[in-house]
Specification:
Shape: globular
Number of helices: 17
Structural class: alpha/beta
Strand order of the largest sheet: 2-1-10-9-11-12-13-14-15
Radius of gyration: 24 Å
Distance between the termini: 55 Å
Number of strands: 26
Length: about 525
């Protein structure tokens, strides 16, 4: 059974709107018509190198237009696209080649000695061939893949161990891009600024959605300089942008009093790969009243599943920290933490979602592990049957996120089950402490972890790390502030000041590294 595909949509757009700009990088522009021709030529060149349906092809995901030529050229043949981090090392990319059992690697990294048995081509060489072969190669006809064929393998960052390859079928990719397109409201007249690394699931799903909508993507290499964001916004009249929570703070700090003047020109801003703090949601809602700010919850395994429209919740104290409502087509339920999940899944799959079924997940005092089912869910982890079996059960993706919902179905997260702090039997979410601390403006970032109680009484106690502190920051005043908002047992046993909190490539808090800081 076939499903529609990103490739087919772009090829159709190359015929229906050939002169419309699809991609922009600095001074370069690529029309949909030219984009379609390059995709076909790339597919022909890959086929000449032996790439066929079902093969895995790696490519270094540079923040350049050719990245999308590689992606769609690979998928044109029914092969599986495997993007790699442009900031990674050659050894890491070669390791992923082995993990994915790849047929070919299009690399932008410097690999001195090509190992025997590996087919590795530099992107520079391939692009030269692409230019010379234009209109001079036999292009194989496009054939729709089966919806369960593998479209992409996205390797996770590996902060908790060796990277896992998340398999997304053509069915999942199609559902994910439509969820994003509909959730954000991306239109054909949108010009979307993309400053995130193009191997990451957040960037990929917004890029896919923009292209299927027939819009224009403006590629930017990170958020290092707010001036570049402003220049791209003005030059290309960008209507949308994608960011992570830390980058919004970076832009606000650099733009200062010009933040509204510049960022207020966007029709929408999607913030993903982490939740905006309560204070960020309130502040952005005030500072950008005319811009739709969407904070999305999801993962590489699902794409965006919940969309929170920040302006709708910023002034609602009970709902300001919500993950949002599940998108249409996504089923969610809550599993008792530590219970026999397989048995519970079997029971609840046939049951209604009425409150009397179970108290699990029905309020903050009875959270459960979030499980998700729908077409957006991954097919598994490549080459890891045991971990796939642990994550996917009866069609449900079982997460380690402890969540609950209110009476109207809005979801709330307490944190990952292994991050919850057990204080003498009292369960504390680190997010609760971090959100309250974020409303105290003495520092720029906060992270709460649990550590063994030095007195040996409570089991574990919370410790709060603060970073990017202002000159007027006072740990004494912060503690007094927390004491007015938290129960006594939840007040951090220690407040530790650091220059900057450890984060991963996508600027998510690295709680393992933070725990290591405490031990050190």
């Amino acid at each position: 059974m076939r499903t529609d595909t990103l490739v087919n949509c772009v090829l159709e757009l190359s015929e229906s709107q050939p002169d419309k700009t699809a991609l922009i990088f600095r001074k370069e522009k690529l029309s949909y018509g030219e984009f379609g021709r390059r995709i076909r030529t790339a597919a022909a060149l890959l086929a000449k190198r032996g790439v066929k349906r079902g093969d895995r092809v790696l490519y270094t995901a540079m923040s350049k237009m050719e990245t999308f030529v590689f992606l769609l050229g690979i998928q044109y043949l029914g092969a599986t696209a495997v993007p790699t981090d442009k900031s990674g090392k050659a050894e890491h990319e070669l390791s992923l080649y082995d993990d994915a059992e790849a047929a070919l690697l299009l690399t932008a990294l410097k690999i001195k000695d090509i190992p025997s048995g590996k087919q590795i081509v530099t992107q520079k060489e391939f692009l030269t061939e692409l230019k010379e072969a234009e209109n001079a190669v036999d292009v194989p006809p496009y054939e729709f893949p089966d919806k369960e064929d593998y479209a992409e393998i996205l390797f996770t960052s590996g902060t908790t161990g060796k990277p896992k390859g998340v398999i997304l079928s053509f069915r999942a990719v199609w559902d994910i891009l439509n969820n994003t397109k509909n959730g954000i409201g991306i239109r054909g007249d949108d010009v979307v600024l993309m400053p995130l690394p193009l191997h990451h699931s957040l960037a990929l799903r917004v890029c896919r959605a923009t292209l299927v909508a027939g819009g224009t993507l403006v590629l930017q290499n990170g958020f290092a300089f707010a001036k570049e964001t402003e220049q791209n916004q003005l030059t290309h009249a960008c209507t949308g942008m994608v960011a992570v929570p830390v980058s919004m703070e970076l832009l606000r700090g650099q733009m200062q009093e010009h933040f509204y003047e510049i960022m207020g020109r966007f029709r929408f801003i999607e913030v993903g790969s982490g939740a905006l703090s309560v204070e960020q949601r309130k502040r952005l809602s005030r500072m950008l009243p005319d811009t739709q700010i969407t904070n999305t919850w999801g993962s590489s395994e699902t794409g965006g599943v919940m969309f929170t429209y920040v302006h709708d919740v910023a002034e609602n104290e009970e709902r300001v920290s919500t993950l949002g409502l599940p998108i249409a087509g996504a089923e969610v339920m809550f599993l008792a933490n530590g219970a026999d999940s397989d048995a519970q899944l079997h029971e609840t799959a046939e049951a209604s979602c009425k409150a009397e079924r179970s108290l699990i997940g029905r309020n903050r005092d009875n959270p459960g592990r979030l499980a998700i089912r729908g077409d957006m869910v991954m097919s598994g982890y490549y080459g890891r049957p045991d971990e796939t079996a642990d994550a996917l059960r009866d069609g449900w993706l079982v997460t380690n996120d402890l969540c609950y919902s209110d009476e109207e179905g809005y979801l709330f997260m307490l944190g990952r089950s292994d991050d919850i702090i057990n204080i003498g039997g009292e369960k504390l979410s680190p997010l609760e402490v971090e959100n309250i601390a974020s409303e105290y403006e003495g520092a720029g970032e906060y992270a709460c972890i649990g550590v063994p109680d030095p007195d040996g009484i409570l089991g574990h106690v919370p410790v709060l790390f603060v970073g990017k502190c202002r000159e007027d920051y006072s740990a004494v005043e912060l503690r007094k502030y927390l004491a007015t908002r938290l129960e006594r047992i939840k007040i951090p046993a220690r407040i530790i000041e650091v220059e900057e909190l450890p984060r991963n490539r996508m600027q998510k808090l690295d709680r393992r590294a933070i725990a290591a800081l405490y031990k050190a």
